[in-house]
Write a structure and sequence with these properties.
The complex is a heterodimer of chains A (200) and B (419). With 200 residues, chain A is α/β, with parallel strands linked by helices. Helices cover 59% and strands 12% of the residues of chain A. In chain A, helix 4 runs parallel beside helix 5. Chain B is an alpha/beta fold and 419 residues long. Chain B has a domain of 123 residues: 3-Layer(aba) Sandwich (D-Maltodextrin-Binding Protein, domain 2), CATH 3.40.190.10. Chain B is 39% helix and 17% strand. Chain B contains 18 helices and 16 strands. A 5-stranded mixed sheet of chain B has the order 2-1-3-11-4, with helices on both faces. Chain B has a 5-stranded mixed sheet with strand order 8-7-9-6-10, sandwiched between helices. Chain B has a two-stranded antiparallel sheet with strand order 5-14. Chain B starts with 11 loop residues before the first strand and ends in a 9-residue tail after the last helix. Classes of the chains: A alpha/beta (200), B alpha/beta (419).
């Protein structure tokens, strides 16, 4: 096991996340990074690529297949252990919290693997933050749409101005200790039940 | 072994499961009030793979889980990526697996004289003939799938193949495929057959990609399948809470076995967050109905048994049998220490202690000679009267947990020594 560049294989069905991880590993000076998705023939591809380290989404249903392959094909391939150091509980937990699992060829030095795993963990977390921001932006957008629609219903059925309709939604929300979007949602549902509003 | 942020609620149990019909006692205990009646609150999560479920227990994100019977043993023997201390205080039932093959392989098996009504030995003989012919003709090796390496399926399938002199992983390749993907892998020709828990065999039959050829209870009448795996330190931290969990799952298992509850259980399991499948498929599994050809069905008695005949009782001889097979296939070397650790994983003593207030008959013995009971037999029990159903192996094999080495020496096919 010389100092040659380690071959890192990133398996991820999520292409955006995979490229975020790849970029992070390359920035950290890892030259040999291969990214594959979870298409069929995955196991054969892994044998062909013969990586030193595999980074895979903890939630991937393919993990059982991967571990099985390591179990039954010990004669043909190099043994693989999971995680860098079985005694390093904190880093194992950090990896699992972040949603990363990693398989490493047995016998590789800890100092060489730890930075790879740390980078993968950071990148998984960065992706998760991005996803959450995106989800939030989407839900804010749909909340705004709902409020607009609720305002429209009030304007039509109660003959209110746009401002008064909004003020009514806001004061109701305050009285009921709820968010305006929730009040808007209830109003839309009620209007639909009463036949005031056609489906979305 | 590891730290994790713990909930401050002492009555909270975090349990994981995989979507297989025998998760029923765990799901029913959690969602139908059995845990609540014992003062427990359950946080139940569906996992994407057995590996993830195992890792989540290892870092104590989960306290207990629906697990493959050999998994906790493998963890205690250090054969898994994260060695762990897990115990098995309760079994989640016998049976419930099918061996299902592609329509193409079924045609070949029939031509080779395979029986049509799920008999294990005739089917194995036909498979040996087909495998030998393919070898002669230079056709690719057959590929069978299991759900995970450390599963009852792996050892049942290997036992069954070996009994017909087929060397697993040499003459037939064995791969792992996630259970819900088995039917599509079969349809796509990626695998020729699989051994997996229901409902996936039935899904393959219903969708036309597969034909069930035998069942795990045809291979071993009382074959243990899934277990309740519990983190040892969680159990030790509050033994009474652990007992309450065991009672909740036990009562749920008895409820699941009652034919009057099948419809309700099937609807519960059919929910999107559990299986997201039609309830009819799950009800057929619970009834033990297996699809044959042209819409014909066969009722297999005792196909899936959650609690009858002491099915929840964790026999040490079951742990010993799994250990013997791990040695047989070269995953570990036979040692007194390994044998002791494997046996210590299964806890009949904890099972009896937890269920004592329920006054139900349980075996007084911790182990038995597996394969020796050929007809319903009365056995000594804690209270009342207890009858055990047949635990016969299809090849008539007898497993004495005190004589593992003799047993291994008598097995017709084994791996070429520890690798």
């Amino acid at each position: 096991m010389s100092d040659r560049a380690l071959h890192i294989l990133v398996i991820d069905a999520n292409r955006i996340r995979a490229s975020i991880i790849e970029e992070g590993l390359k920035e950290a000076g890892q030259a040999r990074v291969t990214v594959i998705d979870e298409a069929k023939g995955l196991m054969r591809r892994i044998v062909e690529l013969d990586p030193d380290v595999i980074v895979i989404d903890l939630e991937s249903p393919n993990r059982d297949a991967l571990e099985h392959m390591f179990q039954v094909s010990r004669a043909a391939k190099r043994p693989v252990a999971m995680f860098v150091d079985r005694t390093d509980d904190a880093s194992i937990e950090a990896a699992i919290d972040a949603g990363v699992s990693a398989y490493v060829v047995d016998g590789l030095k800890k100092e060489r693997i730890k930075p790879i795993l740390d980078t993968a963990i950071r990148r998984f977390r960065a992706f998760e933050r991005l996803r959450q921001e995106l989800d939030q932006a989407r839900s804010e957008l749909s909340e705004r749409k709902r409020i607009e629609r609720a305002k429209g219903i009030l304007m039509r059925t109660r003959g209110l101005s746009e401002e008064s309709a909004y003020a009514l939604l806001r004061s109701t929300a305050m009285q009921q200790n709820k968010r305006i979007a929730e009040i808007a949602e209830s109003l839309i549902t009620a209007a639909r039940l009463l036949g005031e509003e056609e489906g979305i | 072994m590891m730290r994790s942020a713990r909930s401050s609620d002492p009555n909270l149990v975090r349990m994981g499961f995989m979507p297989l019909t025998d998760c029923a006692p765990v799901v029913a205990a959690s969602l139908l009030g059995f845990a609540e009646a014992e003062g427990l609150r359950v946080n139940l999560t569906k996992e994407a793979s057995w590996a993830t479920l195992r890792d989540r227990i290892a870092v104590r994100h989960l306290d207990a889980a629906h697990m493959l019977a050999p998994m906790p043993i493998a963890a205690c023997l250090g054969l898994t990526p994260l060695p762990d201390r897990l115990i098995v205080p309760l079994m989640l039932g016998f049976g419930g697996n099918t061996i299902t093959v592609s329509r193409a392989l079924w045609a070949d098996l029939k031509a080779a004289g395979a029986p049509t009504r799920l008999e294990a030995s005739g089917t194995a003989r036909a498979l040996a003939e087909v495998a030998a012919r393919r070898r002669r003709e230079g056709a690719p090796k057959l590929v069978f799938a299991v759900v995970h390496h450390h599963s009852a399926h792996t050892y049942q399938l290997s036992y069954w193949l070996a009994a017909a002199s087929i060397l697993p992983n040499v003459e037939i390749d064995i791969v792992a495929v996630p259970p819900p993907l088995m039917p599509s892998a079969l349809a796509a020709g990626q695998i020729d057959g699989f051994c997996a828990g229901e409902p996936w065999g039935r899904v393959a039959s219903v969708t036309g990609s597969g034909r069930c050829v035998t069942t795990n209870i045809a291979i071993w009448r009382a074959s243990p399948e899934k277990v309740l795996g519990v983190a040892q330190d969680w159990a030790d931290a509050d033994p009474e809470r652990h007992f309450r969990l065991i009672r909740a799952v036990y009562k749920a298992a008895v409820w699941c076995d009652d034919p009057a509850n099948r419809g309700e259980l099937a609807r519960l399991l059919a929910r999107p967050e559990i299986f997201d499948l039609p309830a009819e498929i799950l009800e057929a599994n619970l009834d033990g109905r297996i699809a044959l050809d042209n819409g014909e069905e066969m009722q297999v008695s005792g196909f899936l048994n959650f609690s009858r005949s002491a099915a929840t009782f964790p026999w040490k001889s079951h742990a010993a049998w799994f250990y013997s097979q791990m040695v047989r296939w070269g995953e570990t070397k036979m040692s007194a220490d390994g044998y002791a650790r494997a046996q210590a994983t299964y806890r009949p003593d904890v099972h009896r202690a937890a269920l004592a207030p329920l006054d139900v008959p349980l075996p007084t013995a911790n182990a038995k000679i597996e394969g020796a009971i050929t007809a319903e037999t009365a056995v000594p029990s804690t209270v009342g009267r207890l009858f055990l159903a047949s635990d016969r192996f299809f090849d008539g094999g007898i497993f004495d947990p005190e004589r593992i080495e003799d047993y291994l020496a008598s097995q017709p096919v084994k791996a070429d020594g520890p690798r």
